[in-house]
Automatic annotation (TrEMBL):
It comes from Anopheles minimus. The lineage of its organism: Eukaryota, Metazoa, Ecdysozoa, Arthropoda, Hexapoda. This is Fatty acyl-CoA reductase. It comes from the Eukaryota. Belongs to the fatty acyl-CoA reductase family. Catalyzes the reduction of fatty acyl-CoA to fatty alcohols. It is an enzyme of class 1 (oxidoreductase).
């Protein structure tokens, strides 16, 4: 175990139960590898959706076979025991209950102590209503689950440095200057429109934002503050992610 992890960090994660969304993405894989290699968590739940004919477990196995995990596999004693700490949880992010059986939902709420929400669509040209569904509503559903977590100590919601890219000065605070009556009004309005009307209205809603990705991530930050400010939650705005 590397000393660079820091003793207080190791102490925080010692024997803890961690939950991750977005583990199939670039940042999610890096985070999962770091947790395995440096931090002695007791259990890591990875929330993954089924994709075509691949179950959550099959997708997790694909992730763990990648080169990124070679160091854990080849240089770590008892590597199998480390990988066995990870449990794939198959979810449907489009459902309010995430498609979880009540027993599994209760188990997550009873055990999870630390959570990372990295779930996001990074398609810059995605239709606005779909970007809001993935980046805002899916986040809301995950945080609703964690609202009932009895032992939760920390939640990190991963946003982006560009969530306020229409501003010349960005401070470490949440800006709620969402036009068109705010996020809830936008969501309710789009729910009543046909696709061609949504397409016509989207540029008006985006205003000075360059694309649906940055705007939806801004909306997610506001929802995190307004709906889940009672939780021990922080927002991380990474600038650019490279290997």
């Amino acid at each position: 175990m590397s000393d660079t992890c820091g003793s207080k960090v190791i102490e925080f994660y010692q024997d803890s139960v961690v939950l991750i969304t977005g583990a199939s993405g670039f940042l999610g894989k890096v985070l999962l590898e770091k947790l395995l290699r440096c931090l002695d968590a007791r259990k890591i739940y990875v929330l993954i959706r089924r994709k075509r004919d691949y179950s959550a477990q099959m997708r997790l196995e694909q992730i763990l076979k990648s080169m990124l995990f070679d160091r854990v596999r080849n240089e770590t004693k008892a590597a199998k025991a480390l990988f066995d700490k990870i449990e794939a949880v198959e979810v449907n992010f489009e459902r309010d209950d995430l498609g979880l059986e009540p027993g599994l939902r209760d188990r997550l709420r009873h055990e999870v102590e630390v959570a990372f929400n990295l779930l996001a669509s990074v398609n810059f040209n995605e239709a606005l209503d779909q970007a809001l569904e993935t980046n805002v509503e899916c986040t809301r559903r995950v945080l609703n689950l964690l609202s009932g977590a009895r032992r939760i100590k920390s939640i990190i919601h991963v946003s982006t440095f560009y969530s306020n890219c229409n501003r010349t000065m960005i401070e470490e605070k949440i800006y709620d200057d969402i036009g068109f009556g705010g996020y809830d009004n936008i969501k309710n309005t789009f729910a009543k429109l046909q696709d061609d009307h949504k397409q016509f209205l989207s540029p008006v809603v985006l205003g000075t934002f360059p694309n649906s990705y940055t705007f939806s991530k801004k909306c997610a930050e506001v929802v995190v503050r307004d709906k889940f400010g009672h939780l021990p939650i922080g927002i991380f705005r990474p600038p650019i992610a490279i290997p």
